[in-house]
Write a structure and sequence with these properties.
homodimer; 304 residues; alpha+beta; Protocatechuate 3,4-Dioxygenase, subunit A; six-stranded mixed beta sheet; five-stranded mixed beta sheet; 9 helices; disordered C terminus
Chain lengths: 304, 304
Protein backbone atom coordinates (compact mmCIF):
# COMPACT_ATOMS: atom_id res chain seq x y z
CA UNK A 1 0.00 0.00 0.00
CA UNK A 2 1.30 3.48 -0.84
CA UNK A 3 2.65 5.21 2.26
CA UNK A 4 0.40 8.04 3.39
CA UNK A 5 2.05 9.57 6.45
CA UNK A 6 -1.06 11.23 7.88
CA UNK A 7 -3.07 8.02 7.62
CA UNK A 8 -0.20 5.95 9.04
CA UNK A 9 0.13 8.34 11.98
CA UNK A 10 -3.61 8.31 12.56
CA UNK A 11 -3.80 4.51 12.67
CA UNK A 12 -0.81 4.37 15.02
CA UNK A 13 -2.53 6.91 17.30
CA UNK A 14 -5.71 4.82 17.43
CA UNK A 15 -3.82 1.57 18.08
CA UNK A 16 -1.82 3.24 20.86
CA UNK A 17 -5.08 4.08 22.62
CA UNK A 18 -6.09 0.40 22.80
CA UNK A 19 -5.08 -0.22 26.40
CA UNK A 20 -7.62 -2.87 27.37
CA UNK A 21 -6.76 -4.95 30.43
CA UNK A 22 -8.27 -7.94 28.66
CA UNK A 23 -5.58 -8.99 26.14
CA UNK A 24 -8.09 -10.83 23.96
CA UNK A 25 -10.28 -7.72 23.66
CA UNK A 26 -7.19 -5.68 22.77
CA UNK A 27 -6.24 -8.23 20.08
CA UNK A 28 -9.73 -8.21 18.56
CA UNK A 29 -10.05 -4.41 18.58
CA UNK A 30 -6.57 -3.87 17.15
CA UNK A 31 -7.33 -6.23 14.29
CA UNK A 32 -10.75 -4.66 13.65
CA UNK A 33 -9.31 -1.12 13.71
CA UNK A 34 -6.45 -2.05 11.38
CA UNK A 35 -8.79 -3.65 8.84
CA UNK A 36 -11.30 -0.78 9.02
CA UNK A 37 -8.55 1.78 8.38
CA UNK A 38 -7.21 -0.34 5.51
CA UNK A 39 -10.74 -0.44 4.09
CA UNK A 40 -10.97 3.38 4.21
CA UNK A 41 -7.57 3.74 2.57
CA UNK A 42 -8.48 1.21 -0.11
CA UNK A 43 -11.90 2.52 -1.14
CA UNK A 44 -11.34 6.20 -0.21
CA UNK A 45 -15.03 6.79 0.56
CA UNK A 46 -16.46 10.25 0.04
CA UNK A 47 -18.09 11.72 3.13
CA UNK A 48 -21.48 11.07 1.54
CA UNK A 49 -20.59 7.40 0.96
CA UNK A 50 -19.36 7.07 4.54
CA UNK A 51 -22.60 8.53 5.88
CA UNK A 52 -24.61 6.17 3.68
CA UNK A 53 -22.67 3.27 5.21
CA UNK A 54 -23.30 4.64 8.71
CA UNK A 55 -26.99 4.97 7.86
CA UNK A 56 -27.09 1.33 6.72
CA UNK A 57 -25.63 0.23 10.07
CA UNK A 58 -28.10 2.40 12.01
CA UNK A 59 -31.04 0.97 10.08
CA UNK A 60 -29.71 -2.58 10.54
CA UNK A 61 -29.53 -2.05 14.31
CA UNK A 62 -32.96 -0.50 14.41
CA UNK A 63 -34.50 -3.40 12.46
CA UNK A 64 -33.57 -5.74 15.32
CA UNK A 65 -36.30 -6.87 17.70
CA UNK A 66 -36.38 -9.52 20.45
CA UNK A 67 -37.22 -12.07 17.73
CA UNK A 68 -35.22 -10.73 14.78
CA UNK A 69 -31.50 -10.04 14.57
CA UNK A 70 -30.74 -8.18 11.35
CA UNK A 71 -26.98 -8.06 12.14
CA UNK A 72 -26.84 -11.87 12.38
CA UNK A 73 -28.65 -11.94 9.03
CA UNK A 74 -26.03 -9.55 7.64
CA UNK A 75 -23.26 -11.76 9.01
CA UNK A 76 -24.92 -14.78 7.36
CA UNK A 77 -25.38 -13.00 4.02
CA UNK A 78 -21.71 -11.97 3.86
CA UNK A 79 -20.47 -15.49 4.61
CA UNK A 80 -19.06 -14.32 7.94
CA UNK A 81 -21.13 -16.70 10.07
CA UNK A 82 -19.86 -19.58 7.93
CA UNK A 83 -16.29 -18.28 8.32
CA UNK A 84 -16.67 -18.18 12.11
CA UNK A 85 -18.11 -21.70 11.99
CA UNK A 86 -15.15 -22.84 9.90
CA UNK A 87 -12.46 -21.41 12.21
CA UNK A 88 -14.14 -23.08 15.19
CA UNK A 89 -15.20 -26.43 13.80
CA UNK A 90 -12.81 -27.50 11.08
CA UNK A 91 -12.28 -31.25 11.47
CA UNK A 92 -10.53 -34.12 9.73
CA UNK A 93 -11.78 -34.88 6.21
CA UNK A 94 -13.48 -38.10 7.38
CA UNK A 95 -15.72 -36.27 9.84
CA UNK A 96 -19.09 -34.81 8.90
CA UNK A 97 -18.42 -31.09 8.32
CA UNK A 98 -20.26 -28.57 10.40
CA UNK A 99 -22.47 -25.84 9.04
CA UNK A 100 -24.12 -22.81 10.63
CA UNK A 101 -26.97 -23.27 13.12
CA UNK A 102 -29.19 -20.55 11.66
CA UNK A 103 -32.01 -18.75 13.49
CA UNK A 104 -34.67 -21.48 13.51
CA UNK A 105 -33.47 -23.88 16.19
CA UNK A 106 -35.85 -24.38 19.12
CA UNK A 107 -36.23 -27.21 21.64
CA UNK A 108 -37.58 -30.26 19.81
CA UNK A 109 -39.96 -32.90 21.18
CA UNK A 110 -38.32 -36.24 21.99
CA UNK A 111 -39.67 -38.80 19.53
CA UNK A 112 -39.18 -42.54 19.09
CA UNK A 113 -37.10 -43.82 16.19
CA UNK A 114 -39.29 -44.10 13.11
CA UNK A 115 -41.72 -41.41 14.23
CA UNK A 116 -43.40 -39.21 11.67
CA UNK A 117 -42.37 -35.62 12.42
CA UNK A 118 -44.73 -34.18 9.78
CA UNK A 119 -47.95 -33.50 11.69
CA UNK A 120 -49.14 -30.33 9.92
CA UNK A 121 -50.90 -29.68 6.60
CA UNK A 122 -47.75 -30.78 4.73
CA UNK A 123 -48.52 -34.39 5.71
CA UNK A 124 -51.48 -34.40 3.30
CA UNK A 125 -49.80 -32.36 0.56
CA UNK A 126 -46.35 -33.89 0.20
CA UNK A 127 -44.94 -37.28 -0.65
CA UNK A 128 -43.64 -39.15 2.40
CA UNK A 129 -39.89 -39.16 2.89
CA UNK A 130 -37.84 -41.47 5.08
CA UNK A 131 -34.66 -39.94 6.49
CA UNK A 132 -32.20 -42.43 7.91
CA UNK A 133 -28.56 -42.94 8.67
CA UNK A 134 -25.99 -44.07 11.11
CA UNK A 135 -23.96 -42.13 13.64
CA UNK A 136 -20.40 -43.45 13.83
CA UNK A 137 -16.96 -42.26 14.78
CA UNK A 138 -14.48 -41.42 12.04
CA UNK A 139 -13.39 -45.09 11.83
CA UNK A 140 -16.98 -46.17 11.16
CA UNK A 141 -17.69 -47.63 14.61
CA UNK A 142 -21.40 -47.12 15.40
CA UNK A 143 -22.28 -44.85 18.31
CA UNK A 144 -25.31 -46.05 20.29
CA UNK A 145 -27.28 -43.54 22.36
CA UNK A 146 -26.23 -40.47 20.35
CA UNK A 147 -28.85 -37.71 20.30
CA UNK A 148 -29.90 -36.40 16.90
CA UNK A 149 -31.72 -33.06 17.08
CA UNK A 150 -33.51 -32.40 13.79
CA UNK A 151 -35.36 -29.33 12.50
CA UNK A 152 -36.57 -28.47 9.01
CA UNK A 153 -38.96 -26.31 7.00
CA UNK A 154 -42.00 -27.84 5.32
CA UNK A 155 -42.67 -28.31 1.60
CA UNK A 156 -43.60 -24.60 1.39
CA UNK A 157 -40.38 -23.46 3.07
CA UNK A 158 -41.86 -22.56 6.48
CA UNK A 159 -40.79 -23.60 9.97
CA UNK A 160 -43.43 -24.25 12.64
CA UNK A 161 -42.42 -20.99 14.37
CA UNK A 162 -43.32 -19.01 11.23
CA UNK A 163 -46.57 -20.74 10.36
CA UNK A 164 -49.72 -20.83 12.48
CA UNK A 165 -51.03 -23.79 10.46
CA UNK A 166 -48.24 -26.03 11.82
CA UNK A 167 -48.51 -27.47 15.35
CA UNK A 168 -45.71 -26.53 17.78
CA UNK A 169 -42.72 -28.84 17.37
CA UNK A 170 -43.77 -29.82 13.86
CA UNK A 171 -40.89 -31.06 11.69
CA UNK A 172 -38.64 -31.17 14.74
CA UNK A 173 -37.42 -34.20 16.69
CA UNK A 174 -34.95 -35.24 19.33
CA UNK A 175 -34.02 -38.83 18.51
CA UNK A 176 -31.63 -41.31 20.12
CA UNK A 177 -29.64 -43.76 18.02
CA UNK A 178 -30.20 -47.50 18.53
CA UNK A 179 -27.57 -50.10 19.46
CA UNK A 180 -26.19 -50.01 15.94
CA UNK A 181 -25.95 -46.22 15.85
CA UNK A 182 -28.96 -45.90 13.57
CA UNK A 183 -31.56 -43.16 13.47
CA UNK A 184 -34.61 -42.89 11.22
CA UNK A 185 -37.77 -40.83 10.98
CA UNK A 186 -40.54 -40.03 8.54
CA UNK A 187 -40.97 -36.54 7.16
CA UNK A 188 -41.50 -34.63 3.91
CA UNK A 189 -39.01 -33.05 1.53
CA UNK A 190 -38.30 -29.47 2.70
CA UNK A 191 -38.46 -26.59 0.23
CA UNK A 192 -35.92 -23.86 -0.44
CA UNK A 193 -36.98 -20.53 1.11
CA UNK A 194 -35.99 -16.86 1.19
CA UNK A 195 -34.36 -15.16 4.15
CA UNK A 196 -36.28 -12.08 5.40
CA UNK A 197 -36.02 -9.36 2.75
CA UNK A 198 -38.12 -6.59 4.28
CA UNK A 199 -35.19 -5.01 6.19
CA UNK A 200 -31.96 -3.22 5.26
CA UNK A 201 -30.16 -6.51 4.52
CA UNK A 202 -32.85 -7.37 1.97
CA UNK A 203 -32.19 -3.98 0.38
CA UNK A 204 -28.48 -4.75 0.26
CA UNK A 205 -29.08 -8.12 -1.44
CA UNK A 206 -31.18 -6.38 -4.09
CA UNK A 207 -28.52 -3.70 -4.64
CA UNK A 208 -25.89 -6.44 -5.02
CA UNK A 209 -27.97 -8.30 -7.61
CA UNK A 210 -28.35 -11.30 -5.29
CA UNK A 211 -31.34 -13.53 -4.56
CA UNK A 212 -32.31 -14.24 -0.92
CA UNK A 213 -32.83 -18.01 -1.30
CA UNK A 214 -31.49 -20.81 0.82
CA UNK A 215 -31.45 -24.23 -0.87
CA UNK A 216 -33.67 -26.92 0.70
CA UNK A 217 -32.09 -28.50 3.77
CA UNK A 218 -32.62 -30.31 7.04
CA UNK A 219 -30.73 -29.12 10.14
CA UNK A 220 -29.10 -31.66 12.45
CA UNK A 221 -27.26 -31.34 15.71
CA UNK A 222 -25.67 -34.59 16.85
CA UNK A 223 -24.16 -35.19 20.27
CA UNK A 224 -22.62 -38.31 21.80
CA UNK A 225 -20.58 -38.87 24.96
CA UNK A 226 -16.84 -38.88 24.26
CA UNK A 227 -17.29 -37.13 20.91
CA UNK A 228 -17.29 -33.60 19.64
CA UNK A 229 -20.86 -32.49 18.84
CA UNK A 230 -21.64 -31.33 15.33
CA UNK A 231 -24.24 -28.84 14.13
CA UNK A 232 -24.80 -29.13 10.41
CA UNK A 233 -27.22 -29.07 7.50
CA UNK A 234 -28.01 -31.78 4.98
CA UNK A 235 -28.97 -30.31 1.60
CA UNK A 236 -31.20 -31.75 -1.11
CA UNK A 237 -29.28 -32.53 -4.31
CA UNK A 238 -30.66 -30.86 -7.43
CA UNK A 239 -31.87 -27.75 -5.62
CA UNK A 240 -31.41 -24.75 -7.96
CA UNK A 241 -29.87 -22.67 -5.16
CA UNK A 242 -27.16 -25.15 -4.08
CA UNK A 243 -24.46 -23.13 -5.85
CA UNK A 244 -25.68 -19.78 -4.55
CA UNK A 245 -26.93 -20.36 -1.00
CA UNK A 246 -27.61 -16.85 0.37
CA UNK A 247 -25.97 -17.97 3.65
CA UNK A 248 -22.96 -19.73 2.05
CA UNK A 249 -23.53 -22.83 4.20
CA UNK A 250 -23.33 -25.59 1.54
CA UNK A 251 -20.45 -28.08 1.57
CA UNK A 252 -20.18 -30.92 -0.93
CA UNK A 253 -20.19 -33.61 1.76
CA UNK A 254 -23.55 -32.32 3.02
CA UNK A 255 -25.51 -32.79 -0.23
CA UNK A 256 -27.72 -35.88 -0.49
CA UNK A 257 -29.84 -37.07 -3.41
CA UNK A 258 -33.26 -38.36 -2.32
CA UNK A 259 -34.23 -41.53 -4.17
CA UNK A 260 -37.81 -42.41 -5.05
CA UNK A 261 -38.75 -45.97 -3.97
CA UNK A 262 -41.82 -47.78 -5.22
CA UNK A 263 -41.36 -51.19 -3.61
CA UNK A 264 -44.14 -52.25 -1.18
CA UNK A 265 -41.63 -54.29 0.85
CA UNK A 266 -39.38 -51.26 1.33
CA UNK A 267 -42.42 -49.10 2.14
CA UNK A 268 -43.60 -51.57 4.76
CA UNK A 269 -40.12 -51.72 6.29
CA UNK A 270 -40.26 -47.95 6.98
CA UNK A 271 -44.00 -47.94 7.75
CA UNK A 272 -44.98 -45.64 4.87
CA UNK A 273 -47.82 -46.09 2.36
CA UNK A 274 -47.00 -46.30 -1.32
CA UNK A 275 -44.06 -44.65 -3.10
CA UNK A 276 -41.75 -42.61 -0.93
CA UNK A 277 -38.47 -40.67 -0.97
CA UNK A 278 -35.46 -42.31 0.62
CA UNK A 279 -32.97 -39.83 2.10
CA UNK A 280 -29.86 -41.39 3.65
CA UNK A 281 -27.31 -39.38 5.62
CA UNK A 282 -24.62 -40.87 7.85
CA UNK A 283 -22.90 -38.74 10.50
CA UNK A 284 -19.28 -39.27 11.47
CA UNK A 285 -18.25 -37.66 14.76
CA UNK A 286 -14.75 -36.85 15.94
CA UNK A 287 -13.78 -38.63 19.19
CA UNK A 288 -12.66 -36.13 21.82
CA UNK A 289 -9.04 -37.45 22.04
CA UNK A 290 -8.80 -37.14 18.28
CA UNK A 291 -10.12 -33.58 18.61
CA UNK A 292 -7.40 -32.65 21.13
CA UNK A 293 -4.71 -34.03 18.79
CA UNK A 294 -6.24 -32.15 15.88
CA UNK A 295 -6.27 -28.88 17.81
CA UNK A 296 -2.57 -29.30 18.59
CA UNK A 297 -1.81 -29.94 14.92
CA UNK A 298 -3.90 -26.96 13.82
CA UNK A 299 -2.38 -24.56 16.32
CA UNK A 300 1.11 -25.73 15.36
CA UNK A 301 0.38 -25.24 11.67
CA UNK A 302 -1.24 -21.82 11.76
CA UNK A 303 0.84 -18.66 11.96
CA UNK A 304 -0.61 -16.59 14.81
CA UNK B 1 -1.52 -15.59 5.61
CA UNK B 2 -1.58 -19.39 5.90
CA UNK B 3 -3.71 -20.92 3.13
CA UNK B 4 -6.95 -22.37 4.47
CA UNK B 5 -8.78 -23.84 1.49
CA UNK B 6 -12.28 -23.82 3.02
CA UNK B 7 -11.96 -20.15 4.04
CA UNK B 8 -10.46 -19.22 0.66
CA UNK B 9 -13.32 -20.97 -1.15
CA UNK B 10 -15.89 -19.30 1.10
CA UNK B 11 -14.53 -15.81 0.46
CA UNK B 12 -14.39 -16.46 -3.28
CA UNK B 13 -18.05 -17.63 -3.16
CA UNK B 14 -19.13 -14.44 -1.39
CA UNK B 15 -17.18 -12.18 -3.75
CA UNK B 16 -18.65 -14.00 -6.76
CA UNK B 17 -22.14 -13.08 -5.52
CA UNK B 18 -21.33 -9.35 -5.59
CA UNK B 19 -23.06 -8.55 -8.87
CA UNK B 20 -24.12 -4.96 -8.24
CA UNK B 21 -24.94 -2.90 -11.33
CA UNK B 22 -23.34 0.07 -9.57
CA UNK B 23 -19.58 -0.54 -9.97
CA UNK B 24 -18.73 1.73 -7.03
CA UNK B 25 -21.06 -0.21 -4.71
CA UNK B 26 -19.46 -3.45 -5.92
CA UNK B 27 -15.98 -2.06 -5.21
CA UNK B 28 -16.93 -0.93 -1.70
CA UNK B 29 -18.70 -4.19 -0.79
CA UNK B 30 -15.88 -6.36 -2.18
CA UNK B 31 -13.33 -4.46 -0.11
CA UNK B 32 -15.49 -4.60 3.03
CA UNK B 33 -16.16 -8.34 2.62
CA UNK B 34 -12.48 -9.10 2.01
CA UNK B 35 -11.39 -7.17 5.12
CA UNK B 36 -14.13 -8.68 7.28
CA UNK B 37 -13.13 -12.21 6.24
CA UNK B 38 -9.46 -11.38 6.87
CA UNK B 39 -10.45 -10.11 10.33
CA UNK B 40 -12.23 -13.42 11.10
CA UNK B 41 -9.25 -15.42 9.89
CA UNK B 42 -6.85 -13.28 11.91
CA UNK B 43 -8.63 -13.24 15.26
CA UNK B 44 -10.47 -16.58 14.92
CA UNK B 45 -13.39 -15.47 17.09
CA UNK B 46 -15.26 -18.07 19.08
CA UNK B 47 -18.98 -18.17 18.40
CA UNK B 48 -19.55 -16.49 21.77
CA UNK B 49 -17.13 -13.69 20.86
CA UNK B 50 -18.81 -13.24 17.49
CA UNK B 51 -22.23 -12.98 19.11
CA UNK B 52 -20.87 -10.44 21.62
CA UNK B 53 -19.65 -8.37 18.67
CA UNK B 54 -23.05 -8.68 16.98
CA UNK B 55 -24.72 -7.64 20.22
CA UNK B 56 -22.48 -4.56 20.41
CA UNK B 57 -23.56 -3.55 16.89
CA UNK B 58 -27.24 -4.13 17.70
CA UNK B 59 -26.99 -1.99 20.85
CA UNK B 60 -25.10 0.71 18.94
CA UNK B 61 -27.87 0.85 16.34
CA UNK B 62 -30.56 0.89 18.98
CA UNK B 63 -28.88 3.76 20.87
CA UNK B 64 -29.41 5.98 17.82
CA UNK B 65 -32.22 8.54 17.93
CA UNK B 66 -33.14 11.43 15.61
CA UNK B 67 -30.65 13.58 17.61
CA UNK B 68 -27.96 11.02 18.44
CA UNK B 69 -25.93 8.85 16.07
CA UNK B 70 -23.98 6.29 18.08
CA UNK B 71 -22.42 4.79 14.91
CA UNK B 72 -20.95 8.18 13.93
CA UNK B 73 -19.59 8.37 17.49
CA UNK B 74 -18.07 4.91 17.04
CA UNK B 75 -16.54 6.01 13.73
CA UNK B 76 -15.11 9.09 15.49
CA UNK B 77 -13.72 7.08 18.42
CA UNK B 78 -11.92 4.62 16.11
CA UNK B 79 -10.30 7.42 14.09
CA UNK B 80 -12.32 6.40 11.03
CA UNK B 81 -14.05 9.75 10.60
CA UNK B 82 -10.63 11.43 10.63
CA UNK B 83 -9.36 8.89 8.09
CA UNK B 84 -12.31 9.63 5.79
CA UNK B 85 -11.61 13.36 6.25
CA UNK B 86 -7.97 12.79 5.37
CA UNK B 87 -8.62 10.83 2.16
CA UNK B 88 -11.02 13.55 0.99
CA UNK B 89 -9.28 16.73 2.08
CA UNK B 90 -5.54 16.23 2.05
CA UNK B 91 -3.98 19.44 0.75
CA UNK B 92 -0.58 20.97 0.17
CA UNK B 93 1.51 21.54 3.33
CA UNK B 94 1.01 25.32 3.15
CA UNK B 95 -2.78 25.03 3.39
CA UNK B 96 -4.67 24.92 6.68
CA UNK B 97 -5.37 21.23 7.25
CA UNK B 98 -8.95 20.08 7.60
CA UNK B 99 -10.38 18.27 10.57
CA UNK B 100 -13.68 16.53 11.20
CA UNK B 101 -16.89 18.54 11.43
CA UNK B 102 -18.26 16.75 14.49
CA UNK B 103 -21.91 16.61 15.56
CA UNK B 104 -22.37 20.14 16.92
CA UNK B 105 -22.59 22.29 13.81
CA UNK B 106 -25.83 24.22 13.39
CA UNK B 107 -26.70 27.38 11.43
CA UNK B 108 -24.96 30.32 13.08
CA UNK B 109 -26.23 33.91 13.33
CA UNK B 110 -24.50 36.39 11.02
CA UNK B 111 -22.51 38.77 13.20
CA UNK B 112 -20.40 41.86 12.46
CA UNK B 113 -16.63 41.63 12.76
CA UNK B 114 -15.61 42.20 16.36
CA UNK B 115 -18.91 41.00 17.81
CA UNK B 116 -18.97 39.23 21.14
CA UNK B 117 -20.35 35.75 20.54
CA UNK B 118 -20.45 34.91 24.29
CA UNK B 119 -23.94 35.94 25.36
CA UNK B 120 -24.67 33.27 27.99
CA UNK B 121 -23.60 32.81 31.61
CA UNK B 122 -20.01 32.17 30.49
CA UNK B 123 -19.70 35.90 29.70
CA UNK B 124 -19.72 36.66 33.44
CA UNK B 125 -17.62 33.67 34.49
CA UNK B 126 -14.75 33.59 32.02
CA UNK B 127 -11.94 35.89 31.00
CA UNK B 128 -12.60 37.58 27.65
CA UNK B 129 -10.76 36.15 24.67
CA UNK B 130 -10.17 37.79 21.30
CA UNK B 131 -9.94 35.40 18.35
CA UNK B 132 -8.52 36.91 15.20
CA UNK B 133 -6.71 36.01 12.04
CA UNK B 134 -6.48 36.42 8.34
CA UNK B 135 -7.88 34.31 5.53
CA UNK B 136 -5.40 34.08 2.65
CA UNK B 137 -4.56 31.82 -0.22
CA UNK B 138 -1.52 29.56 0.05
CA UNK B 139 0.74 32.35 -1.24
CA UNK B 140 -0.43 34.66 1.55
CA UNK B 141 -2.68 36.89 -0.57
CA UNK B 142 -5.60 38.08 1.60
CA UNK B 143 -9.09 36.92 0.64
CA UNK B 144 -11.75 39.58 1.22
CA UNK B 145 -15.38 38.53 1.64
CA UNK B 146 -14.61 34.98 2.83
CA UNK B 147 -17.20 33.54 5.22
CA UNK B 148 -15.95 32.19 8.54
CA UNK B 149 -18.49 29.96 10.29
CA UNK B 150 -17.48 29.50 13.94
CA UNK B 151 -18.88 27.27 16.68
CA UNK B 152 -17.47 26.34 20.06
CA UNK B 153 -18.31 25.03 23.53
CA UNK B 154 -18.27 27.33 26.55
CA UNK B 155 -15.85 27.34 29.47
CA UNK B 156 -17.74 24.36 30.94
CA UNK B 157 -17.53 22.31 27.73
CA UNK B 158 -21.15 22.74 26.61
CA UNK B 159 -22.56 23.88 23.29
CA UNK B 160 -25.73 25.99 23.19
CA UNK B 161 -27.68 22.99 21.88
CA UNK B 162 -26.78 21.00 25.02
CA UNK B 163 -27.36 23.71 27.61
CA UNK B 164 -30.66 25.47 28.37
CA UNK B 165 -28.77 28.28 30.15
CA UNK B 166 -27.23 29.40 26.83
CA UNK B 167 -29.30 31.41 24.33
CA UNK B 168 -29.76 29.90 20.86
CA UNK B 169 -26.80 30.67 18.63
CA UNK B 170 -24.53 31.35 21.59
CA UNK B 171 -20.83 30.90 20.82
CA UNK B 172 -21.63 30.64 17.13
CA UNK B 173 -21.07 33.20 14.39
CA UNK B 174 -21.07 33.64 10.65
CA UNK B 175 -18.48 36.34 9.90
CA UNK B 176 -17.24 37.88 6.64
CA UNK B 177 -13.60 38.89 6.24
CA UNK B 178 -12.77 42.55 5.59
CA UNK B 179 -10.86 43.97 2.64
CA UNK B 180 -7.60 42.71 4.08
CA UNK B 181 -8.93 39.20 4.66
CA UNK B 182 -9.18 39.73 8.42
CA UNK B 183 -11.75 38.30 10.82
CA UNK B 184 -12.05 38.85 14.58
CA UNK B 185 -14.55 38.28 17.33
CA UNK B 186 -14.75 38.23 21.11
CA UNK B 187 -15.46 35.03 22.98
CA UNK B 188 -14.23 32.95 25.93
CA UNK B 189 -11.74 30.10 26.08
CA UNK B 190 -13.61 26.82 25.44
CA UNK B 191 -13.14 23.85 27.76
CA UNK B 192 -12.29 20.27 26.93
CA UNK B 193 -15.34 17.98 27.23
CA UNK B 194 -16.30 14.31 27.16
CA UNK B 195 -18.14 12.67 24.27
CA UNK B 196 -21.38 10.93 25.35
CA UNK B 197 -20.47 7.91 27.48
CA UNK B 198 -23.91 6.57 28.41
CA UNK B 199 -24.20 4.31 25.35
CA UNK B 200 -22.40 1.22 24.01
CA UNK B 201 -19.50 3.30 22.64
CA UNK B 202 -18.89 4.71 26.14
CA UNK B 203 -18.77 1.12 27.38
CA UNK B 204 -16.23 0.27 24.68
CA UNK B 205 -14.00 3.21 25.65
CA UNK B 206 -14.06 2.02 29.27
CA UNK B 207 -13.20 -1.55 28.26
CA UNK B 208 -10.32 -0.24 26.15
CA UNK B 209 -8.93 1.79 29.06
CA UNK B 210 -9.57 5.05 27.20
CA UNK B 211 -10.92 8.40 28.41
CA UNK B 212 -13.75 10.10 26.47
CA UNK B 213 -12.26 13.60 26.41
CA UNK B 214 -11.85 15.96 23.49
CA UNK B 215 -9.23 18.69 23.99
CA UNK B 216 -10.55 22.28 24.02
CA UNK B 217 -11.15 23.61 20.50
CA UNK B 218 -13.04 26.03 18.30
CA UNK B 219 -14.61 24.77 15.07
CA UNK B 220 -14.28 26.81 11.88
CA UNK B 221 -15.63 26.37 8.39
CA UNK B 222 -14.19 28.86 5.90
CA UNK B 223 -15.48 29.39 2.38
CA UNK B 224 -14.42 31.82 -0.31
CA UNK B 225 -15.21 32.08 -4.00
CA UNK B 226 -12.55 30.46 -6.19
CA UNK B 227 -11.16 28.47 -3.26
CA UNK B 228 -11.68 25.08 -1.74
CA UNK B 229 -13.65 25.38 1.54
CA UNK B 230 -12.09 24.00 4.69
CA UNK B 231 -13.77 22.62 7.80
CA UNK B 232 -11.36 22.41 10.69
CA UNK B 233 -10.71 22.82 14.41
CA UNK B 234 -8.31 25.11 16.19
CA UNK B 235 -7.07 23.57 19.44
CA UNK B 236 -5.86 25.28 22.61
CA UNK B 237 -2.18 24.61 23.30
CA UNK B 238 -1.46 23.12 26.71
CA UNK B 239 -4.71 21.16 26.89
CA UNK B 240 -3.99 17.86 28.72
CA UNK B 241 -5.93 15.88 26.09
CA UNK B 242 -4.11 17.19 22.99
CA UNK B 243 -2.12 13.97 22.67
CA UNK B 244 -5.10 11.69 23.24
CA UNK B 245 -8.11 13.36 21.60
CA UNK B 246 -10.88 10.76 21.77
CA UNK B 247 -11.78 11.68 18.17
CA UNK B 248 -8.20 11.75 16.82
CA UNK B 249 -8.78 15.14 15.18
CA UNK B 250 -5.68 17.04 16.37
CA UNK B 251 -3.02 18.12 13.86
CA UNK B 252 0.07 20.09 14.86
CA UNK B 253 -0.75 23.00 12.54
CA UNK B 254 -4.11 23.43 14.28
CA UNK B 255 -2.77 24.06 17.80
CA UNK B 256 -2.62 27.67 18.97
CA UNK B 257 -1.30 29.08 22.28
CA UNK B 258 -3.55 31.82 23.69
CA UNK B 259 -1.52 34.72 25.07
CA UNK B 260 -2.62 36.80 28.03
CA UNK B 261 -2.49 40.55 27.31
CA UNK B 262 -2.63 43.18 30.01
CA UNK B 263 -2.16 46.34 27.94
CA UNK B 264 -5.04 48.86 28.05
CA UNK B 265 -4.21 50.06 24.54
CA UNK B 266 -4.48 46.51 23.16
CA UNK B 267 -7.69 45.95 25.14
CA UNK B 268 -9.21 49.13 23.75
CA UNK B 269 -8.19 48.11 20.23
CA UNK B 270 -10.28 44.91 20.53
CA UNK B 271 -13.01 46.55 22.65
CA UNK B 272 -12.49 44.37 25.73
CA UNK B 273 -12.20 45.49 29.34
CA UNK B 274 -9.02 44.68 31.26
CA UNK B 275 -6.73 41.70 30.70
CA UNK B 276 -7.75 39.31 27.95
CA UNK B 277 -6.60 36.23 26.02
CA UNK B 278 -5.30 36.79 22.52
CA UNK B 279 -5.90 33.82 20.20
CA UNK B 280 -4.55 34.23 16.67
CA UNK B 281 -5.28 31.77 13.88
CA UNK B 282 -4.69 32.40 10.18
CA UNK B 283 -6.40 30.29 7.55
CA UNK B 284 -4.78 29.47 4.23
CA UNK B 285 -7.15 28.21 1.54
CA UNK B 286 -6.28 26.28 -1.59
CA UNK B 287 -7.29 28.05 -4.82
CA UNK B 288 -9.52 25.83 -6.95
CA UNK B 289 -7.07 25.52 -9.90
CA UNK B 290 -4.36 24.44 -7.45
CA UNK B 291 -6.85 21.91 -6.10
CA UNK B 292 -7.45 20.41 -9.55
CA UNK B 293 -3.70 20.08 -10.11
CA UNK B 294 -3.30 18.52 -6.69
CA UNK B 295 -6.01 15.97 -7.41
CA UNK B 296 -4.23 14.96 -10.61
CA UNK B 297 -0.94 14.54 -8.79
CA UNK B 298 -2.57 12.57 -6.00
CA UNK B 299 -4.42 10.24 -8.36
CA UNK B 300 -1.26 9.67 -10.35
CA UNK B 301 0.74 8.89 -7.23
CA UNK B 302 -1.66 6.47 -5.55
CA UNK B 303 -1.82 2.82 -6.58
CA UNK B 304 -5.51 2.03 -7.14
Amino acid sequence: MTPEPELDRLLADVLRQVKAEDPRLAEIVRSAVTHLHAFVREVRPTEEEWLRGIDFLVRTGQACTPTRNEFILLSDMLGLTSAVDEVNHAGPPEATPSSVEGPFHSPAPARPLGASIAEGPERDRAEPMVVHGRVTDCAGTPIAGATVDVWQADDAGHYDTQDVAQPDGNLRALLTTDDEGRYWFRSVLPSSYPVPTDGPVGGLLTALGRHPMRPAHIHLRVEAAGHRPVTTHVFVAGDPYLDSDAAFAVKDALVVAPERRDDPGEAARWAVDGPFLDFAFDIRLVAQPAQAELAAVTLGGVAR
